Amino acid sequence: MKLGIKLKNLRIAKGYTQEELADRCDLSRSFISQLENDQVSPSIDTLERILRVLGTDLKNFFADDVRKKIVFRVDERVPMYMEEQGIIGYILMDNIEDKSIDPKLIELEPGAQTEEESPHEGDEFGFVISGKLELILDKKVYKVKEGDCFYYCADRKHKIRNPYKKSVKFLWINIE
């Protein structure tokens, strides 16, 4: 494994120059350069310090990228059994460790609504694929139609309803 290129890619993804990373880790810029060019090997303590600044840890850094799932097939979706409430839902990505988003595909039949959620941490995003819906945040109603999207901090009561005569299909993503 080329340690240097992985570190360089992480540094660039964070938007740090070699100098900025060196300063944050209390190391020299030349050491970071040598490390990225695989000319030196860091101690475990130094590597942990660098990875902490780059927002990861040893376990995730050395995880085998080949085993990380990239494509999630339609036949792998996990049904969310709420059909008796007029809601058809699917979890789009399952069995993922440390995911920070939870996307779902939801269809609300006419007159159906989700249960009101209490305030919680995170944000929520939605994109209406077809139809229209109402997003209720606390007691304020937002009308959202096909092609529109919504985004809000989940720190207040919220639910989604379909008071219309046609079904609505939307992508709903919980972000931690």
UniProtKB/TrEMBL annotation:
PROSITE patterns: HTH_CROC1. Pfam families: Cupin_2, HTH_3. Residues 7-61 form the HTH cro/C1-type domain. It comes from the Bacteria. Signal peptide: none annotated. Coiled coil: none annotated. SMART domains: HTH_XRE. The keyword Cytoplasm does not apply. Keywords: DNA-binding. It comes from Thermosipho ferrireducens. This is Cupin domain-containing protein.
